[in-house]
Every structure is written in C-alpha cells, then in structure tokens.
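go over both lines:
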Amino acid sequence: MSRIVLVRHGATAWTGRRYCGRSDPELSPAGLEQARRAARRVAGLVAPGTAVICSPSRRALGTARLVAKRIGGPAAVDDRLAEVDFGAAEGLSFDEVSHRWPTISERLLAGDLDVDWPDGESASEFRARLHEVAAMLAGTQGDIVAVSHAGPIRALTALLGGDATPTLEPAPGAVVIVPLRTQVRS
C-alpha cells in the first residue's frame, strides 16, 4: 500500500508565537536540527529516491531539501501546500488575534479550525486547494513525502483517511504517516 509521509517544517522564530502563513521566516537553529531529525526518520521509512514535494515557504523548502538530500532525490515545490493565508492576522500573536477577533479566537479554542481569516483565505478556499492535493496524491503509485505546515497536514490527514481529528497539531519536524486510499474523503 502506498503512503504519504507528511513532514511539518522545522521551527522558526515565529513558531508558537505568531500567526505565520504567508510570511517567510527562515528555520531557527532549533528548527534546522528538527528538520535534520525529520530527514533521518523519513530516510528510515521510504525507499531511496522517493519523491518529495513541499510548500514554497523557506521553512518548508529548507526542511524538504534536507529530506530529499537524505533520500537521494529532488524536492519539487507545490504552491497548494502553503499554509493558510491568515490575512490581517498574519504576524500577530495569539493574544492580539483574540483581542481583535474574539469570535475567531473562541472558535479556535473550541477546536473549530474551519475559519474565514479576515482579509485572508476562507475555509472553503483552503479546503478546495488541499482537496486538489489529496486527489493528486491518491492517484500516485508508491510512497511520496510532502513537507508542509500544521494546517495542510491536518487537512491532508483527514482527506486521505488518517486521523480526522481536527485537533491534530503536528510539532515542528513531526512526521505523520498516512496510508493512501484511492478515494479522497469529502
């Protein structure tokens, strides 16, 4: 059975502190080490030369390059693997978002991640682009590695038949393995 090996990029200076969707900070020193550990783990899971796709952000691309080098293949960028566009919330702390948009904050705290971000990406737009990625992945033969962000990893895990729990919060450098199904969940 084919699998998708989902890897969250290593940490940046913003990780856990600020909403970081389309901003493009580099990996922090700790994030670089997390990416190296993820690359070692992935190399023990997949065959040499396994395809690697990734988000266009520097943090994901840096992680993907380490993974690809370790398994002996290139890293191809797929823009659809980008983190959600947080719009006006981009760069803000969690407290700042809570103050400006208390309803969004309450929903997030309740585990509802289906949010339309002010001046950013709507939940339906986000779902649509990740559904496209899931459909493309479901049609592949063999394993594939995708390096992305917490939001897309949650969505792809649910769409491809893994843990559909919306509270899945992969840590920086986490590796999530999902058996690929031929049918994508709606």
Q: What stands out?
A: The chain is about 40% helix and 10% strand. Helices lie at 29-43, 58-71, 94-100, 102-109, 123-138, 150-159. Residues 119 and 145 are 31 Å apart (CA to CA).
